[in-house]
Specification:
Layout lengths: L2 H4 L6 H16 L4 H22 L9 H16 L4 H7 L8 H8 L4 H26 L3 E2 L2 E2 L7 H21 L5 H16 L3 H18 L6 H12 L2 H9 L6 H19 L10 H8 L15 H9 L1 H24 L4 H16 L9 H17 L7 H9 L1
Antiparallel strand pairs: 1-2
Helix pairs in contact: 2-3, 2-7, 3-6, 4-5, 4-16, 6-18, 7-8, 7-9, 7-18, 8-9, 8-10, 8-17, 8-18, 10-17, 13-15, 15-16, 16-17, 17-18
Length: 399
């Protein structure tokens, strides 16, 4: 499909305002969740205004429907929650799913590439902030880790993981625009390493490894080379953190196993609707495994396990349906899209999310979720004609 490349004119008027505010949201989601929420709300109002003014229908890509059903399953889980008040309060995060139709409408054609430029640029700035925190402000230990301008090192590492996968896809699958991504890639990877977040390390290796396979399977040989360089030159705290991944006596690893046992018991007692969204922290003391390190955990550090325990096995099946549809569509687009860097970045992001999500509940992190939903929507949006050009194209075809 070449139409988006030929007719991606600059938006005008209200369309342009909505586009620019949405780009502001895309920049802010890596910096401040409060600012991101405000800009997303403004964008939503402008988007709805455009739909009403132009008499347009709300359009969504196919992968949105499994996610909508998942949202419904979440509400059902809240109804049957062990603590309805807490669970219904948590369902407000479902509003973030509106990012999909908004991005689908406002980022057609080459505007999707502009969104990626913003993602990579702000990610690079955040990476530099993290490196400065480590080098100057003593964010260099497990008690105080680099977190950029975000509120938690896990959020920071998860976002950097997605940005690194996006930059790698730009380098490998859009060589005409790879210069900036190539310049900032080292900073992204260094900052990610400095977070000492092992799940994000696993995720970025999985995501970039998939990109290597898609580009040239021989590139996979670079992964062990990178690991060897890391072990040889990284500071001792980082290599110690890497080695701890394989140590079954590591307290964090033991606690992860204990959380899995607790999660399975929750699922056994509440198989259909779970204990309720955000209710795991309330029931954890009841289900806590005797071998657990911590007395309390807010979540189970595993995406599939968390969803099943919180929302029930049907909700997990629906979420897996969403993932399967997403992977299927992105795999097709990697072969057909003229902007291959977008579906390959989305595939790498899904792979990274799944790999890291075995050790962290990243799908429930708002900043991570916003960026993830944006990245997986861009390939669909890129295949669309901008609304401002569609009438002109139709007139030419009629003539």
């Amino acid at each position: 499909m070449t139409a988006p490349l030929q007719h991606a004119e600059r938006p005008e008027g209200l369309e342009r305002v909505a586009w620019l505010v949405f780009l502001g949201f895309i920049a802010a989601l890596q910096v401040s969740i409060a600012a991101a929420h405000v800009l997303l709300a403004i964008t939503a109002v402008l988007w709805l205004t455009l739909l009403v003014r132009n008499r347009e229908r709300v359009e969504v890509p196919g992968m949105f429907w499994p996610l909508a059903v998942y949202a419904g399953a979440t509400v059902v889980a809240a109804v049957f929650s062990v603590h309805r008040g807490v669970s219904f309060a948590d369902t407000k995060q479902l509003v973030l799913f509106a990012i999909i139709p908004i991005a689908y409408r406002l980022l057609p054609g080459r505007r999707s590439l502009t969104a990626v430029d913003v993602i990579i640029t702000v990610g690079a700035i955040e990476a530099v902030v993290g490196i400065v925190q480590y080098a100057i402000f003593d964010f260099d230990n497990l008690g105080q880790r680099v977190q950029g301008s975000l509120t938690h090192y896990m959020t920071y590492s998860g976002v950097l993981m997605l940005v690194a996968c996006t930059a790698a896809a730009r380098i490998m699958f859009r060589p005409q625009d790879k210069a900036w991504a190539s310049i900032v890639m080292p900073a992204l990877l260094v900052a990610l390493a400095l977070t000492m977040s092992r799940n994000a390390w696993v995720g970025v290796c999985a995501g970039i490894g998939l990109l290597f396979l898609l580009r040239d399977f021989r590139l996979v040989a670079l992964l062990p080379v990178a690991a060897a360089l890391f072990i040889s030159f990284a500071p001792a705290p980082l290599t110690d953190r890497l080695y701890s991944t394989f140590n079954l006596e590591d307290p964090t690893n033991r606690d992860r196993v204990a959380m899995m046992r607790s999660g399975w018991r929750m699922i056994k007692d509440h198989p259909l609707t779970g204990v309720g969204p955000d209710a795991i922290r309330l029931v954890y003391p009841t289900y806590r495994d005797p071998r657990a390190e911590r007395q309390l955990n807010p979540h189970l550090h595993n995406v599939p396990l968390q969803i099943a325990a919180e929302r029930g096995l049907p909700a997990l099946a629906i979420w897996l349906w969403f993932i399967v549809v997403l992977i299927r569509d992105m795999a097709r687009k990697t072969r057909s899209s003229p902007l291959r860097s977008l579906p390959t970045a989305a595939l790498a992001g899904v792979c990274a999310m799944l790999a890291a999500g075995m050790f962290e509940y990243n799908f429930g992190d708002s900043e991570f979720l916003m960026l993830f939903l944006l990245l997986v929507t861009l390939p669909y949006a890129a295949d669309r004609l901008p609304a401002t050009t569609a009438p002109a194209v139709a007139q030419r075809h009629a003539a």
